Each structure stands twice: as structure tokens, then as C-alpha cells.
């Protein structure tokens, strides 16, 4: 005995409903356009540059980009050495952290237990 399957309406609804329920973005990068930002990537690389563009997948375009190189003895520490990269397109899947360059300061790790 076959059961009757009802067709459901699409979850998106009508175009009028979409205008009312416009998605709010979690990360609004528009306020950082044409400002210096710092980006950390998977694998530990860090770069800073002027944000020129982005998309919903967090692919970002940076201009006047500077990469901060890691210390050759300790790969978890950044050295004072930098490398000029210029105009860069960063893949969003590799981005771990985005922060304004002027609003960042280093603090000691609160989770390290004193010996």
C-alpha cells in the first residue's frame, strides 16, 4: 500500500518574505574597507594589508600586503623579518583571524601555568 506524499512549499518562501528576512552577516568587513587589517591563516602565516574587497566566503583582497615571517628556530614565533607581497587575494577557507591592525596588542597567555 503506497502512502500519499505531500509536496511541501520551499523553505525560502516568496521574494517578499526574503526581503523581510534578509540574512544578517556574522562578520561585517565593510567597516574595515580601505583600512589596515591583520590576517592570520591556517598553518601559522600572518599578513597585514589594506582591505580592498571581500565576498561572503571570506575571500579577501589586500593591497600593500606585508607577510610576517616566522622564526627559523621556533616556528611558533614570528621574527622581525617581513616580506613585501603587494596586492594579494587570500582564500577564505585559509583565513583563521581578521583584526584591525591599529586595535591589536599582544597579551601574555593566561593559560600557561608558571613552573
Automatic annotation (TrEMBL):
SMART domains: Sm. One of its GO terms (biological process) is mRNA splicing, via spliceosome. It is found in: Nucleus. Keywords: Acetylation, mRNA processing, mRNA splicing, Nucleus, Ribonucleoprotein, RNA-binding, Spliceosome. GO terms for molecular function: RNA binding. The keyword Ribonucleoprotein applies. Residues 24-104 form the Sm domain. Residues 1-20 are annotated as: Disordered. This is U6 snRNA-associated Sm-like protein LSm7.
Amino acid at each position: 500500500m503506497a502512502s500519499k506524499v505531500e509536496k511541501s512549499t520551499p523553505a525560502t518562501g516568496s521574494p517578499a518574505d526574503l526581503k523581510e528576512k534578509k540574512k544578517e552577516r556574522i562578520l561585517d568587513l565593510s567597516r574595515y574597507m580601505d583600512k589596515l587589517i591583520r590576517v592570520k591563516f591556517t598553518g601559522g602565516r600572518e599578513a597585514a594589508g589594506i582591505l580592498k574587497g571581500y565576498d561572503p566566503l571570506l575571500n579577501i583582497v589586500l593591497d600593500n600586503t606585508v607577510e610576517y615571517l616566522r622564526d627559523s628556530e621556533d616556528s611558533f614565533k614570528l621574527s622581525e623579518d617581513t616580506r613585501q607581497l603587494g596586492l594579494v587575494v587570500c582564500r577564505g577557507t585559509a583565513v583563521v583571524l581578521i583584526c584591525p591592525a591599529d586595535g591589536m596588542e599582544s597579551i601574555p597567555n593566561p593559560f600557561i601555568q608558571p613552573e
